[in-house]
Amino acid sequence: DAKTTQPTSMDCAEGRAANLPCNHSTISGNEYVYWYRQIHSQGPQYIIHGLKNNETNEMASLIITEDRKSSTLILPHATLRDTAVYYCIVSAPNTGNQFYFGTGTSLTVIP
Amino acid sequence: GAVVSQHPSWVICKSGTSVKIECRSLDFQATTMFWYRQFPKQSLMLMATSNEGSKATYEQGVEKDKFLINHASLTLSTLTVTSAHPEDSSFYICSAEPRGAGGSDTQYFGPGTRLTVL
């Protein structure tokens, strides 16, 4: 079963930052937080992941709270192509690394 | 880098026939591959974990005799849906975990295969 909860849907104005929250209050010490997104009828696309520290790459930033019970994915300047379902997943590489997807957040970027 | 392909991208078959779906890691070796199924307007559901050279581990409720998984090499895993029925119609997606990824083992997903059973 998924160990994460996310809002069902969110809207964001084009050009503005999109902040997508995720709760993972039962996360274990060895579990990473992964973010993927899925555009309709395609396979999920990797965005970013982290363990404890905040992370940034060319696509997004990941902010993990100090207690690791929640995180936020930030898309700094949302474009129409960022409209997708965003999934937050917690998984431990040393115990099989199975991904159990929750319902995700459907992000709509509005012109 | 980290490209995963699936073949075919879509398939239509008659009820009772078997369908094989291939998943390939194109530019890396994958110790572990995973198979998922996704019904319309639903999330991805993990079906099984496949390790190269060993038997797949199936999630609870997934029939291993119906969904045959073979992971014969570090770049190829196959899923065979045996005696397919209309209720097996779904979007099947694989993912691959790079060998020796160390630390965090990011999964890279294929584009998916749309199966329609008539």
Could you characterize what this model shows?
The complex is a heterodimer of chains A (111) and B (118). Chain A has 111 residues and is mainly β. Chain A has no helices and 9 strands. Chain A has strands spanning 9-13, 18-23, 32-38, 45-50, 55-56, 61-64, 70-75, 84-91, 105-110. Chain A starts with 8 loop residues before the first strand and ends with a strand. Chain B is an all-beta fold. Chain B has strands at residues 4-7, 10-13, 19-25, 30-38, 45-51, 57-58, 67-73, 76-81, 90-98, 108-109, 113-117. Chain B is globular, with a radius of gyration of 14 Å. Chain B starts with a strand and ends with a strand. The mean pLDDT of chain B is 92.
Walk me through the topology.
The complex is a heterodimer of chains A (111) and B (118).
Chain A: E1 9-13, E2 18-23, E3 32-38, E4 45-50, E5 55-56, E6 61-64, E7 70-75, E8 84-91, E9 105-110
Parallel strand pairs in A: 1-9
Antiparallel strand pairs in A: 2-7, 3-4, 3-8, 5-6, 6-7, 8-9
Chain B: E1 4-7, E2 10-13, E3 19-25, E4 30-38, E5 45-51, E6 57-58, E7 67-73, E8 76-81, E9 90-98, E10 108-109, E11 113-117
Parallel strand pairs in B: 2-11
Antiparallel strand pairs in B: 1-3, 3-8, 4-5, 4-9, 5-6, 7-8, 9-10, 9-11
Characteristics:
heterodimer, A: 111 residues, mainly beta, five-stranded mixed beta sheet, four-stranded antiparallel beta sheet, 9 strands, 0% helix, globular, B: 118 residues, 11 strands
Question: What class would the helix/strand composition of chain B place it in?
Answer: mainly beta
- Helicity range of chain B: under 10%
How many strands in all of chain B?
11
Per DSSP, what share of the residues of chain A sits in E-state strands of 2 or more residues?
A: over 45%
